[in-house]
Write a structure and sequence with these properties.
eight-stranded mixed sheet, Jelly Rolls, 14 strands, alpha+beta, 8 helices
Length: about 350
């Protein structure tokens, strides 16, 4: 079901029928949980404190915000304003990049973005290959003119933050600090530049359905408009608003972290609700394994005499299952659970 990108049109007075979700897929009432996504301060000189905060957040949510992360405010600001400028380009300039081919980069699309979609989600997306820079730099959009320089600076800085967080996480799990370096992070860094135009009836649709990311770790920045929600482990599994802190980065673990940690850390399940008053733009940067990477519980994560929760697999095999399950957390993990 190919659809016209939402950012191509004028302001919507009602939700087009193709974006109206069945009742069981709608967001329901607003989250009532008083819980808040943990905030990890990467400043200071107490790594044990930082590690403890990451582990606590990883167990409860698979989500946390980071402050004092070292990415300059100017770098974040240039990237965000360039992204917002892209979605404001004339339709004919954006549509040069439009495609329903999920393997194409760069790629502009709406909803999830393939012809097999039964349901459409209230989201436009510019998907970019970002790193290695020399592999993707020549593909980047030429408009807006400042996007290329902004993307290079932002990708470099955010990837460094992600790798630092993975070293701290490895230490918290009792693993070698470099456990996540190498094949587990050797895949390309991909960015989804998401844009959610104001929605006249937020109760009828969703920006993105509940899912976990398939990769190891995702780093996200947004323009300060609310919409992202994370599911809390236990306590009925309620949804919690991720209140964007100015200048912070939002971090969530993906499925591969849950497998490598043998369930000690949670893949952060999340969804996006729509906003009636303001457009939301977010930059989701995915650090991924190489396709041929063999993924399994790390040594020391499985108690003696027990089988790991999940069998070993290649990342390519996992992505096949993830695509088939349309990202459904439980359905994906069930494919790889040990039955012993």
């Amino acid at each position: 079901m190919a659809a016209e990108p939402l950012s191509n049109g004028a302001a919507y007075q009602s939700v087009p029928e193709s974006y109206v979700l069945p009742g069981d897929k709608r967001p329901g009432s607003s989250p009532s949980s008083a819980a808040a996504i943990p905030v990890v301060d990467l400043g200071g000189d107490d790594p044990d404190r930082i590690v403890k905060q990451i582990m606590g957040a990883g167990r409860e949510f698979g989500f946390f915000q980071v402050i004092n992360h070292g990415v300059p405010g100017q770098v974040m600001g240039e990237m965000m304003s360039s992204a917002e400028e892209f979605f404001g380009l004339p339709t004919e300039e954006k549509m040069v990049l439009y495609s329903t081919d999920s393997k194409k980069l760069p790629r502009f699309h709406t909803s999830i973005g393939n012809d097999q979609e039964k349901l459409l989600y209230w989201r436009d997306c510019l998907k970019l290959g970002c790193y290695p820079l020399e592999q993707f730099r020549h593909q980047w959009p030429q408009k807006p003119a400042r996007l290329r320089a902004a993307l290079e600076a932002y990708t470099t800085a955010v990837r460094a933050v992600a790798l630092r967080l993975l070293r701290l996480t490895a230490a918290g799990l009792g693993l070698d600090e470099g456990h996540f370096e190498g094949e587990l992070t050797a895949g390309p860094v991909i960015m989804n530049v998401n844009h959610y135009v104001p929605c006249p009836e937020p109760s009828l649709t969703m920006g993105l359905a509940p899912h976990c990311d398939p990769n190891v770790v995702t780093v996200l920045a947004d323009n300060g408009v609310r919409g992202l929600q994370a599911r809390q482990r236990g306590s009925g599994g309620g949804w919690v608003d991720v209140e964007p802190l100015p200048g912070a980065l939002v971090v969530n673990f993906g499925h591969q972290m849950e497998v490598v940690s043998n369930g000690a850390l949670r893949g952060g399940e999340h969804r996006v609700v729509t906003n009636a008053r303001a457009a939301r733009t977010s930059l989701a940067t995915f650090v991924m394994p190489a396709m041929g990477c063999a993924v399994a519980a790390a040594p020391g994560m499985v108690p003696d005499g027990e089988a790991p929760r999940y069998r070993a697999f290649t990342y390519q095999e996992f992505m096949g299952a993830y695509t088939a399950a349309i990202g459904d957390r439980d359905a994906v993990l069930a494919r790889f659970q040990n039955k012993d």
